[in-house]
Write a structure and sequence with these properties.
This protein has 46 residues and is mainly β. It has no helices and 2 strands.
Length: 46
C-alpha cells in the first residue's frame, strides 16, 4: 500500500479588512504560527 500524496499548503501572510461589520479597518501580520481569534458572540470573529 502506498502513502497518499501530500496536498499543497496555502498560508496567509497578511489579512486586512476594511468596513467589515464592526471593523473600520483591521490588519493582521501573520508569521506562519497558528492563530486563534476569540471574542464574545457578535464581536465580529466570523
Amino acid at each position: 500500500m502506498t502513502a497518499p500524496a501530500a496536498l499543497p499548503c496555502a498560508r496567509l501572510s497578511r489579512l486586512v479588512v476594511t468596513d467589515f461589520r464592526s471593523y473600520a479597518r483591521a490588519e493582521l501580520a501573520l508569521d506562519g504560527r497558528p492563530v486563534v481569534l476569540t471574542g464574545d458572540n457578535g464581536a465580529g470573529k466570523t
